[in-house]
Amino acid sequence: MASTLDIRRRIKSVGNTKKITKAMELVAASKMRRAVQQALATRAYAKTAWDVLTNVSAVTNRELHPLLIEREVKRVAVIVVSSDRGLAGGLNTNVVRQTLEVLKVQTVPVDIITVGTKAADALRRLNVNIVAAFPNAHTHPTVADLQPVVKIAIDDYITGVYDKIFVVYTDFRSTLVQKAWSRQVLPIRKQELKEVLDDVDSAISMKEIEGFQNPYLFEPNAEAVLEKMLRNLVTSQLYQVVLESLASEHAARMVAMRNATDSAEELIEDLNLTYNQVRQASITREIAEISAGRAALE
Q: Quick one: which of 9, 18, 28, 167 could link to 79 by a disulfide (CB 3.0–4.6 Å)?
């Protein structure tokens, strides 16, 4: 059995660990609040951009734009968003697992583009074909940070390098719930776009009957505006994905550090109980030795 000195040293060591995990929990909580606010703030922009896109698409030949056309799938790209740091529970493990699920259902060659080193390291160990790897911004990511990824996705899709592009990330649901998720980025899904556009087309037809004038003035033309809007739509989707993943990362790390702090407290309680038991046993043994010595002298 360990001595009281060893147990005291271990209690002190666990107490120092508890201080570190508590501090990390508070830091993660602060970063999570900022990340959630940033993610929520961009949702309004994404919705407005989608509304403008649908109105612009209503007066253009949307079937001819390459970002909307679905073609035979010969090669697929998957953009995987993870964190650069660990200590976030099963966040990155779930992202890698979801990536493998996406790979399983593909019947054509797949290239991986990673944003975040954790997924890149894990997928390399699994011999997955990674064609590009980028770090993940931990604080205040901007659209400019994503331009290399966006350029690869859009340009390679337009030129026919890839016929379908997916993104795998962690969707922020709440502080306690973050779900690894995958969805198609390109081509922009026609069915979803059609439902919105049909509603807009119907609304425009009705307003035209009533003498409604289109409030949009296009410069240089509607097709050029649609081109810009589609690119911005893809960019905003990927940017939102990064923000959701960042909020999920900080939330997962906060919960993980809170659990670590609670475990340290429980361990300290167990060690204190063990320390008291060892100390009591030592006192009892000393009393027994004194009593035995006195009895021997008598």
A: 167
